[in-house]
Amino acid sequence: IWAHEIRVFALSVVALTVAGVVATKEFLLCVVGGIYKASARPFQVADRIEILKFRGDVIDHNLFTTTLFEVGPEHTVHQYTGRTIVLPNSVFLTNPLFNETYNRRFVLHTFTVPFKRTDDWRLAEKLLLESAFQEVGPYLAEAKQYMSHLERTQGLDAPVMDPRANIHFPDPERIDLVMRVPVPAQRKGRMEQLILRGFVERWERKKAP
Q: Which end of the chain, N or C, is less surrounded by CB atoms within 10 Å?
């Protein structure tokens, strides 16, 4: 007698359950993402991270969201934009995360200086390295010691920490000098600007008649 009513009631319960799951899906994913962050610890406050197209310094994170102080607007720029980004923790479950300051104290930073094929790239390389060694010299020994410590304690193959310049040909008429320098983790943009300004001053003096 009650078969039809029971079937209707069961279907209603299933429909309500499905609706509840759909309605709370994002909320549940944020909670799971928060648990993942707490257990895996891929970053902490003050780290500079990038996920999807969002990049910035972590200023707060909890079970549901992560707040970044935006850095940009481009990937090669290291200046604050004045905006904050609030990310739902669900994004950390399915997207790769880049932590630019994982080592906390010193990192290897790369940047590119373009030239025409007709420019004296050998002189430019020499002047760039001079400027780089001048700026990183005061803490180069400490950076090497720190990387050696990571090599011993974390089983890493420590890279060479001295400033380096590599040649890249993006097209037949252009030469890029790709600089790699050790810098304090929180001063990448500042150190890059100091090196570039020192290089430009040297370049102009050499090219002056």
A: C
